[in-house]
Design a protein that fits this description.
globular; 15 strands; alpha/beta; TIM Barrel; 2 domains; signal; carbohydrate metabolism; Beta-xylanase; xylan degradation
Length: about 400
């Protein structure tokens, strides 16, 4: 099937002049893309202990090999802010360590999203000792503290995660389910989103959920009508029970495009092993010590990733595609990564590299005219332009920008 990617293209006129103002005429320009505007990524939790020197030498060596393959493919990382692990002891959050790792990645042109600020699972256990009123205050304080601390480094946040199930979650007692029961979903979301907005008025604030039924649509609609400052919508697609297929994916896109907000596919899982039995309702209930990747299923995974990413990239509202685990054996011990456990690349890695860095990539040449001008066209993102041995940066962001950007060389 032929898909339209024209909305992913940008166009801009540039002009090269010398220091005395005369145009640089008839000179070749190398146009080299180095980062996509579209965000392709994975969760990248291990980068924090790596940057902070918390790994053993053999772990560092293994991570470095993995990271070289990661950075060759992706430009977006999801960072863990699970309250239970981020602040296991009240008043001692891992801000310094996480900020150090985030800064390190940002210097390599990686955009980072924090996940999540408010969630009933993996929330701080010490909340259970508090009253509901105290829990709300602690949760709001946490959001103010963390959004402020990371402003300018992490400006994309999953503010509230899995709110559809939050007030009826019954696996174990936790403070966030308690306050959601009392406040109701919409009031809770309004409180948490407004706290995040107060600390960073330019941040991209997401609601995120795995429940993609009409219940999520109703919740989003109710929140927007109540003035909750939701900027973008997160859609989880863990497909341990089999690839949803084009028809189902297009149906999801059609339903959520009604809100006319950017769509983030925040947690994509496609396995290269056997399919989880269909009778499992909660994916966490599936326990297995042996979930191997196989050559046959690896080819299937590559085909599924290719089709899914082509569909997502062709939809104008989709901004992000995140494969949840980069290496096999992550969540649920599933072979859902793009690398095997030994760090070797799977066909799915190669398939995504072909799409992102070849099919949807711009690396070309043009030349200045008699006025020193040239039109730069390509996939939207960040570029190096090289002319007469000089390298300048160009951000290509719009289908066609009217103003000419002038470079003095």
């Amino acid at each position: 099937m032929t898909r339209d990617y024209s909305h992913r293209l940008g166009k801009k006129k540039v002009k090269f002049v010398r220091k005395d103002g005369t145009p640089v005429t008839g000179k070749e320009i190398e146009v080299k893309m180095y980062c996509h505007e579209f965000l392709f990524g994975t969760g990248l939790f291990d980068v924090i202990p790596y940057v902070c020197g918390e790994m053993k030498p053999e772990e560092e060596e293994a991570f470095e090999k993995i990271f070289r393959k990661w950075i060759a493919l992706f430009n977006n990382a999801t960072f863990p802010f699970y309250w239970q692990r981020f602040e296991p002891e009240r008043g001692k959050p891992r801000i310094e360590q996480t900020l150090k790792a985030a800064d390190w990645l940002k210097q390599q042109n990686v955009v980072i999203k924090g996940h999540p600020l408010c969630w009933h699972t993996l929330t701080a256990p010490w909340l259970n000792e508090m009253s509901n009123e105290q829990i709300v205050k602690e949760q709001v304080k946490r959001i103010h503290r963390d959004v402020k601390a990371f402003k300018g480094v992490i400006d994309i946040w999953d503010v509230v995660n899995e709110a559809v199930i939050m007030p009826v979650f019954d696996k174990y007692d936790n403070g966030i389910t308690r306050i959601c029961k009392e406040m109701g979903r919409v009031k809770l979301l309004k409180t948490m989103f407004e706290a995040a907005r107060e600390e960073n008025d330019s941040a991209e604030l997401l609601i995120n959920d795995f429940n993609l039924s009409s219940n999520y649509e109703i919740l989003i609609d109710g929140c927007l009508n109540a003035g909750v400052p939701i900027d973008e919508i997160g859609l989880q697609t863990h497909q341990h029970q089999g690839y949803m297929g084009e028809e189902r994916l297009l149906e999801i896109l059609e339903r959520y495009e009604q809100f006319q907000k950017p769509l983030h596919f925040t947690e994509i899982t496609l396995t290269s092993g056997h399919i989880m039995p269909p009778h499992i309702v909660d994916l966490n209930d599936y326990k297995t010590d042996d979930w191997p990747t196989t050559p046959e299923f690896e080819d299937r995974q590559a085909r599924e990733f290719t089709e899914m990413y082509e569909i997502l990239f062709s939809h104008p509202l989709v901004r992000t595609a995140v494969s949840w685990n980069f290496v096999d054996g992550g969540w649920l011990n599933a072979p859902g990564g793009l690398l095997r456990k030994d760090g070797s690349v799977k066909p799915a890695y190669e398939a995504l590299y072909e799409l992102i860095h070849k099919k949807w990539w711009t690396d070309t040449k043009t030349a200045t005219d008699e006025n020193g001008e040239a039109v730069i066209e390509g996939y939207r993102g960040d570029y190096n332009l090289i002319c007469c041995g000089n390298k300048v940066n160009l951000a290509l962001r719009n289908r066609e920008e009217k103003e000419t950007e002038i470079f003095v060389i």
